[in-house]
Amino acid sequence: MTHLTLLTPDGTTSTTGLRAPAVTDADKPAAPLTERVVYAAAHVVPRAAADNTPGAPADLDWDATLAFRHHLWSWGLGVADAMDTAQRNMGLDPAATRELITRSAREAQSVGGRIVVGVNTDDLAPDATADAPASEPSEQQIVDAYVAQLHHAEDAGAGVVLMASRHLARLASTAPDAPAVYRRVYARVIERASAPVVLHWLGEAFDPALAGYFGGQQASDTVLDIMRDAGEQVSGIKMSLLNARAEVSLRSQLPATARMFTGDDFHYVDLIAGDRPGDRSGDRPGSRSADGRHRHSDALLGAFAAVGPIASAAVRALPDEAAYRALLAPTEALSRHVFSAPTWHYKTGIAFLAWLNGHQPAFQMVGGLHAGRSLPHLSETVRLANACGALEDPDLAAARWHGLLALAGLTTPAGRRGSSHVDRPVAEVVA
Description:
12 strands, single chain, 431 residues, two-stranded antiparallel ribbon, disordered C terminus, alpha/beta
């Protein structure tokens, strides 16, 4: 197959040439990356025959879910599991979350792969709805919920990311001194950890329920206070505000032992590269320049689940920034599209690309979230993935995409790019 059919919102179709992947399996590393600490936030794959409808419990295809994690490890990337990309608070229920953590941590140990997992408070009562108001948990209940998940993660052998909690956000929003509430809760949870943890700052673009997290305008100060209170028990923070300036500012103030893990799916190329050439190659924890300022970010990104092979090759190219940018910069347009508003539906794009690339048997998501993006939106995802070389098996991707168009009853140009053509059904072109 030599072309892709694309679809615009008005129903017009066009074709573009199918490109080779930017990297191939021959480019795989022999060990985890060392130029930066890099985690890809992995999604989950449901059974195709499961009840993948809104509100139904998650019923996962464990073979495909775990195989995707092995795919990421094979490229030297770490896996960040049971986090937002895995549909926490958007379909992945507590029982499935616990099983995912246990299984993924065991698989990581079997191959020496890096793994961190999300620890949250979502074992508590569900969020209130108009039909079912929920009683808000107390501060003690929030601490206990965090600690229970913390201990489960540690027992499984995984590193811990203390995720932003909707319950804590609501509790703090009603307090006269919100920063004090965050500082107190995090201190009580961190003191129960047996190893250093990573903090998690997720912006409201990803989850509106987290607006004002860590205390609104005082948030950066609150984060730094939590880190100072904990000392070396906090090894870093994952920052997902889609605000590069805010990340660089906080990064420059972090303690020497803490890393900034960028979660900025819009600006990761510059943030990982760093802001001064002389400081772009080090991997020592908390490495700083002569003036004591952190100069680059490590990474914990959902986007890297979609472009894992390219991300791996690009990071390994450092400190050759030209080679790094040549590989990774073209992926940012794809990431910006996948994470476009409403940003929380980025998971649909991650699962869609995993399906196109052969990492899952069907384009299905827990809770029916595969319906989170329109066909024209997915078409642009296909175009941008093709343009940056993120289609790992271009022929398979094209066949699956054209089949999805055919299922929607759409027609496609029969000719190749630049040729005259007549429209005929997509199914005929695929055949």
